[in-house]
Structure prediction request, 112 residues.
Amino acid sequence: MSNLPNCPQCNSEYTYEDGSHFVCPECAHEWPLQAEAAAEEKRVVRDANGNELQDGDTVTVIKDLKVKGSSSVVKVGTKVKNIRLVDGDHDIDCKIDGIGAMGLKSEFVKKA
Ligand SMILES: [Zn+2]
Prediction:
């Protein structure tokens, strides 16, 4: 069993991996591994309970969080509406009443 992709040119299943490329022995087509990886990689952001989060979700903060560069704290139980998922260490962009725009880590929230 292998999970190599079929050849995109002739659909042969006898493809193999050669360094940074896949190679088809039947039609000699070669294509880069990265293209396959990029297509496979769909980023899923999950909350503290492992539930998948999506843009526009409402989440609840499960831990007091200090706001970087200020003395404000986002209290546990704070509801955050209309989140936006982004790439990075803080993978949720949001706006919190009384605090403003900030980034949260998905591991410190749960879906409301
Ligand atoms: Zn082929």
In short: Residues 33-40 form the longest helix (8 residues). The chain is about 5% helix and 30% strand.
